[in-house]
UniProtKB/TrEMBL annotation:
Name of a matching Pfam family: Thioredoxin_5
Gene3D superfamilies attached to this UniProt entry: Glutaredoxin (3.40.30.10)
UniProt protein name: DsbA-like protein
UniProt signal peptide: none
Organism: Hoylesella loescheii DSM 19665 = JCM 12249 = ATCC 15930
């Protein structure tokens, strides 16, 4: 059966785009192996220095901008419930004043390892909004690529030779051709038929779009929770927010989800990573051991 292609026109620091992740997980579990994702970078923040009043110094200006931005992120989280971290948030500065470097970094990740690029984008969003990391800096971008399993040399080549930036501007042109006015904007495509969808949308709306664009050929499947099903999902998404687990497996509320994963947390098969308003779960890192006879470490 043909897959539905969902083009997601987005930006790494768009809080509403971050809020779509639980619904993406639900789409993936309810339409297994029936979705191809395309992430297109639209470029949300070009240059914040352009908006700085002449009579305000840069430190004061960016302190306020960072505070306003993370406050807005918290406000959006009241609806989407994804993790946000306020303490220490200082993403933007006079020299790190744009989201374009993050968009370009995603294109570099695509060129370095297409299969891991979407994980890089997720980790990039999490670093910026849920971990209060300086995600625009090159050092953090390298760290996020490494955390996503992307070869650093393969990532740095397109990041520095101009090819990733060129690919980003091609994405911007695609966004313009789609007449994108807000992030996120989606295009659902099935067997040549396309249907656009604007703004933050929930699972029910997106599932209805899949049904409509496919002429009823693609319908959601029933899902039930098991540790095996969770760990299978985590093969692709090694870190999941609490809300993502809840949505992916149709739990009625967060309390029901927490009761289901409590045994896995108790045995150490899952670990919690807290944030200000929620938490992630992840599997423990595999330990490394070195054989003293062979000298091989694995």
């Amino acid at each position: 059966m043909n897959k539905v292609i969902i083009t997601n026109v987005t930006d790494p620091v768009c809080p509403w785009c971050w809020g779509e992740e639980p619904f993406f997980r639900k789409l993936e579990t309810h339409f297994p192996n029936l979705i191809t994702w395309r992430n297109v970078m639209g470029g949300l923040v070009e240059d914040m220095n352009k908006n700085k009043p002449a009579d305000i110094d840069s430190l004061t200006y960016y302190n306020k901008e960072n505070k306003d931005f993370i406050t807005h992120c918290l406000e959006t989280a009241e609806k989407h419930h994804m993790p946000i971290k306020v303490e220490g948030f200082n993403l933007f500065s006079e020299t790190e004043n744009s989201s374009f470097p993050l968009c370009i970094a995603f294109k570099a990740a695509q060129m370095a390892d297409a299969e891991k690029a979407d994980l890089f984008l997720y980790n990039l969003r999490a670093a910026a909004m849920a971990e209060a990391r300086q995600a625009i800096s090159e050092a953090e971008l390298i760290a996020i690529a490494d955390e996503s399993g992307i070869d650093i040399a393969a990532f740095l080549d397109p990041l520095n030779d101009g090819s990733a930036e060129k690919a980003f501007w091609q994405d911007v042109e695609e966004a313009k051709s789609l007449k994108v006015e807000v992030f996120p904007t989606f295009v659902f495509e099935y067997e040549g038929k396309k249907m656009p969808l604007k703004n933050f949308r929930d699972y029910n709306t997106m599932a209805a779009m899949i049904k409509a664009v496919s002429g009823g050929k693609l319908l959601p499947q029933a899902v039930s929770f098991s540790p095996e099903a969770l760990f299978e999902l985590m093969e692709t998404h090694p870190r999941l927010a609490a809300e993502e687990v809840k949505e992916a497996f149709d739990f009625a509320d967060l309390q029901a989800m927490e009761a289901a994963i409590a045994p896995l947390l108790a045995t150490g098969d899952l670990l919690k990573q807290p944030t200000d308003n929620s938490y992630f779960v992840r599997k423990p890192a595999k330990g490394m051991a070195c054989d003293l006879t062979t000298g091989i470490c694995k």
